[in-house]
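>> received
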Amino acid sequence: MRRLRILGVRRDERTRGQAMVELALVLPLFVMLLVGIIVLGIGVFYQQQLTNAAREAARYASIHSATAMCPTVSTLAPTAPPRTYSPCDTPAGGWPFMTAAGRHLLFGLPPSAVNLAACWSGYREDTTNAYDAPPPGDYLISSSTVTIASTFAQCTIGGADPTTNPSAIGCNSGLAASTVDEASNLSEAPGRIVANTVTAYACYVWSPPMAGFLLIPQAVTLRAVITEPIERQQ
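>> returned
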């Protein structure tokens, strides 16, 4: 009887030891999976916030076009500026009003760490290579039909097209100096049909929590790009 009790105690100890070994093997994987899901959720949330920032910035620049009282301007002045045109929110100043509009709805992100930039795109006439050209088509001008031949030229930020290659664009506070516009912030002009667009680019360098434990980079650059057509405000 005593022998059986001793054997039973030893068997119970072996069971507990086996459970501890299994826990030691499974627990790190479970914690990694759980934390990974949480970190992934945070990343998706931050990406949504960044997309909202780019959308708000693009919308602000779209509405505050060349006809606004305080227009958000590109590096190119309109070829047919309206009478009320005066550069106000400029790239030289880092577009303070557009940037503030993009940042004001951010939640969970430090606004000062979110960098924004914009560039303007439009049509160029094939014959003169002039920007702010009408889109291609047939137009009635002075009772005669005129055929317009033009091509759409895309702007760049940091040497890359934000609509097709945003991953090639960095994330720093000097993005405004790296913009190359192909059009102005003009929406329309007397006797001229214009189809210019503005593209807003937002970025944020995120340091994921427990990046080393999850075997992911210590810094991840999140990017968002939104394009809006230029609108006439007045």
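>> The helical segments are 2-63, 96-103, 211-214.
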